[in-house]
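Dear colleague,

Following up on yesterday's call, I've attached the two folding results inline so they're easy to grep. Please treat them as preliminary; we haven't cross-checked anything against experimental data yet. The first protein's sequence and structure tokens come first.
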Amino acid sequence: MTIRCRHPVPSPEAVGFTTREGLREAAAKYPHLRPCPKYGWDWLYRTACAKCRDRLEVKLEVMVKDGRTENTYAREGYPRRVP
């Protein structure tokens, strides 16, 4: 089970980046942090998300595609992330 925020990031500029690629690189570099809308999109530890009322608990699904196993998130009730 993965915990995600109900509020999608409005733009990369809101969280301190000029491009989406920069935002993706930062998210990959610091997987234990996430931008939070309650604190003006400052980056907080994900442990704070577990206590938040706006959290979504997303189950991890395993999808078999062309003989390979891929992990994908359930799309039911899950807001779009910044691609």
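Below is the second protein, in the same order (sequence, then structure):
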Amino acid sequence: MLFPFKKNKINYIYNYYKSTAFNIIKARFIKGGVLFKTSKEIIKLINSNFSTFNPISDAEATIYNLDFIIKEGEKFNIFLARFLSTIAPL
């Protein structure tokens, strides 16, 4: 097991981030302890601070990607929901 304890995983993430992302999470760390309970909290905080820069070009890139197809065993209504949410910015 790579991370036997949640604190090990949190510390790894803390040491992994650099620059702007690091500045976002370092404010939540205190000397000798961590204010995050899970690593998902860190990821959620980072994701909330970095949004898609250009949602239109991201949507176009996804649509033109040849891997954007109905997956084996995927029901059509699930694919349709995925497709519609992808093209929404267009």
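For the second protein, one point worth flagging: The CA atoms of residues 5 and 21 lie 23 Å apart.

Best wishes,
A.L.
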